[in-house]
Amino acid sequence: MRKRIYNWPLRRLAVNMVGSGKGGGRGTKGHLASGLVETLSRLAKRHVIDIILVTYGNTPYAAAQWARRNYLVRANTSDTWPLRDDLITKAEELAQDAIEHQLVLFIGAGVSAGAGVDTWKGLLEGMAEKANFTDKERELLAKKDLRDQATLIESALRDSSDSFKKRVANRIAERKLYSLVHGLLASLPSKEAVTTNFDKLFEDAAAVSGSGIAVLPRDPRKTDGRLLLKLHGSVDDHQGMILTRSDYLRMPRQYGALMGLVQGLLMMRKMVFVGYSLSDEDFHELLDEVRAARGDSDDGVGRGTVLTLHDDPLERKLWQQDLDTVPMVIGENASSDLPWAARQLELFLDLVGYLATTSAAFFLDRSYAELTKCESDLLKPLNELVRRTADSAPRTVGSQVKEFLTRLGANYDSKPIDQSAVD
Q: What does the domain layout of the chain look like in residue ranges?
């Protein structure tokens, strides 16, 4: 059994959407999703455990969320998301931004820490030991800025067979499994994300969700419009990783175009920071970009939301001109229970994903007919459009309509949904 990275407040079980691939439920995926969601929800409540339903691809994910919506009409939603009223309101706000493709995710080290990736501080401590720093030297090193620590360690390892950056990349790349938070973030209908992390865990989570993602600046390939800006480089190009003091000084010249793109996003989109400490130097740099993008404007441009585990009134006051600080737990004893606060963040992001999901991805897929009954009056005209556009030539209006209907789940290789099947 794999060792847990951190203790879970409740026992946790992950379940696949079984039988929906080549199994017996592939033709009735809507029934399967509905039955599975209801059964798992009742089991989770009865045994006081967390059950995570895992789907592969945007269509089954949307179907599972819609089946959940149908079930929760008859159940108590407060049992599913025991969150404060202000958190529910913020989740609704972020979900609407995501639906409108106005939400930019800023993903910090705390997200990857949930997958077992070392923090920068912990990583440097390990590298200093490998560089044969004495106990006294490591004690002095720990008092210095992290960028200067990296500079000193790089110098100490200069003559070794593996460079400092390669060692760092190899260490980070040891973690192959992404965290639940990675999966929840990748499942949101957000088109842009920015990270200062070096790992590839968010990319892996996005691939499982069925969406291609362009990773800038190294891999700007054509995708369905999703992109990830890796401001400090990536483990698959260790020489370009931003670690030392000189790396940071060269960054404006090396990644000037990338930072311009970030500023553009800051001007046009709503930001949500996840996994960042308010005292994190990376976080301060990003906020400086926000201020540069906003200029003297006070109309809300460049104002974002930072999701924190615990409430810190002084930090909240420090950043009140730039950010809405949203703590997952509040109260005098809140800071002592990290696992519980981490679970609250997972629940919050789960709620955002639930609220941001529509039935569009599977609406015209025959196998999900069970879930489309509430809007069945639209099926007949849309299926008529499927029939009429089946042979549309490229670059015609018909081909554009065909592309739209495909995004609604239409399969032009099979018959449209029989209206009587859902009546």
A: 12-83, 91-115+178-355, 120-173, 372-421
pLDDT for the residue numbered 375: 81
Residue 136 banded pLDDT, cuts 50, 70, 90:
very high
Which pTM value belongs to this model? Answer: 0.89
For residue 423, pLDDT over 60 is answered with no
Q: Where are the beta strands (DSSP E) in 87-236?
A: 103-107, 192-195, 214-216, 227-230
- 196 three-state secondary structure: coil
CB 287 within 8 A of CB 322: yes
Q: What's the start-to-end Cα distance of the chain, in Å?
A: 47
Q: CA–CA separation, 107 vs 273, rounded Å?
A: 6
**Amino acid symbol at 180:** L
Q: How many helices (H) and strands (E) does the chain have?
A: 18, 9
What's the CATH number for 91-115+178-355? 3.40.50.1220
Tell me how far apart the alpha carbons of residues 29 and 322 are, in angstroms, rounded to a whole number: 45
Q: Say which residues have a Cβ less than 8 Å from residue 276's Cβ, sequence separation at least 6.
A: 106, 108, 109, 110, 282, 283, 286, 306
With beta carbons less than 8 A apart as the criterion, state whether 198 and 241 touch. yes
The DSSP code sequence of 15-82 is EE-TTSSSSTTTT-HHHHHHHHHHHHHHHHHHHT-EEEEE-SSHHHHHHHHHHHHHHHTSS-HHHH--
Structural element, H or E, at residue 274 = strand 270-274
Q: What is the 3-state secondary structure (H, E, C) of 314-364?
A: HHHHHCCCCEEEEEEECCCCHHHCHHHHHHHHHHHHHHHHHHCCCCHHHCC
